[in-house]
């Protein structure tokens, strides 16, 4: 996240102070249920991120941005089943309908085959050379929304959000973004949720699933920074949002009306980055974390930093959207 001195791994001068959560609910909220996640794989990822369930292969895919790698995890054996390495940072992964992945590789969207070999590179328009892909998600109609951030001055408002159609056409749909992060859609496809981390908000847009157009941006949930900063996100079948709180040691669940319902704690891992539902019934919440100390959040002595976590929760995810490209 962000150091106020604008250091290499920070968010720069725009950041709010990020303080590790003390496992109490935000002020003014009703009592929030607390659930402990368990370590599924002690990966020690520098910057674990971008987890997504693959119904094509029946396994979990996630990335280590700083490690320039894609991890694959088998939920049955509880073991990693492959590691794909690349020459550039890997911001996120999406599952392709025809097999393979769509990766936020460097400052591009890169398509791979089923064994990770690069097939196609799609450049994102208007991105400075110093930017990189950071997080992305596929909408219910197979379009990939890919976000970016500055790789040299994290937190500078020079990034964007792009929509990549199945034919490879890329269009910038948001500019002046600081750190583009979690994206999700309501079950009825009428709302898109979006996180630009340093706004300390989850925003919502009116969404047209036929065209992929977004409009009417407005706040959905606003955070004060005391329990971390919003990072990755997923939406469950009931329309609740699950938001990974970087520096907050967990994931917060919100109702469709914005009420906080529960927190899933990642013990020994304050830098919670992303979450998704997986497993055959999509009822396991997987959570990625980071071991590298970022934005002034110390990981020394936090023995589970960089691990992949899993939690049994009273919810189920929506089916994974597959990229049409």
Query: Uncertain runs with pLDDT below 50, 5 residues or more?
Result: 1-29
CATH topology-level name = Neuraminidase
Helix content: under 10%
Query: How many structural domains can be distinguished in the coordinates?
Result: 1
Distance between the termini: 31 Å
Q: CATH H-level name... which superfamily?
A: TolB, C-terminal domain
Order of helices and strands: EEEEEEEEEEEEEEEEEEEEEEEEE
How many beta strands in the DSSP annotation? 25
Topology overview:
Elements lengths: L32 E4 L1 E4 L6 E7 L4 E6 L4 E6 L4 E7 L4 E6 L5 E5 L2 E5 L5 E6 L7 E8 L5 E7 L8 E6 L5 E8 L2 E6 L5 E6 L4 E8 L4 E10 L6 E7 L5 E6 L3 E5 L5 E6 L6 E7 L5 E6 L18 E5 L13
Parallel strand pairs: 1-22
Antiparallel strand pairs: 2-25, 3-4, 4-5, 5-6, 7-8, 8-9, 9-10, 11-12, 12-13, 13-14, 15-16, 16-17, 17-18, 19-20, 20-21, 21-22, 23-24, 24-25
Keywords:
325 residues; mainly beta; Neuraminidase; 5-stranded mixed beta sheet; 4-stranded antiparallel beta sheet; 0% helix; globular; disordered N terminus
Description:
- Strand 3 and strand 4 form a beta hairpin.
- The chain has strands at residues 33-36, 38-41, 48-54, 59-64, 69-74, 79-85, 90-95, 101-105, 108-112, 118-123, 131-138, 144-150, 159-164, 170-177, 180-185, 191-196, 201-208, 213-222, 229-235, 241-246, 250-254, 260-265, 272-278, 284-289, 308-312.
- The radius of gyration is 17 Å and the shape is globular.
- The protein is mostly beta strands and 325 residues long.
- It has a single domain, classed as Neuraminidase (6 Propeller).
- The strands form six sheets. A five-stranded mixed beta sheet has the order 1-22-21-20-19, with no helix packed on it. It has a four-stranded antiparallel beta sheet with strand order 2-25-24-23, with no helix packed on it.
- Residues 1-29 have low confidence and may be disordered.
- The protein starts with 32 loop residues before the first strand and ends in a 13-residue tail after the last strand.
- 51% of the residues are buried.
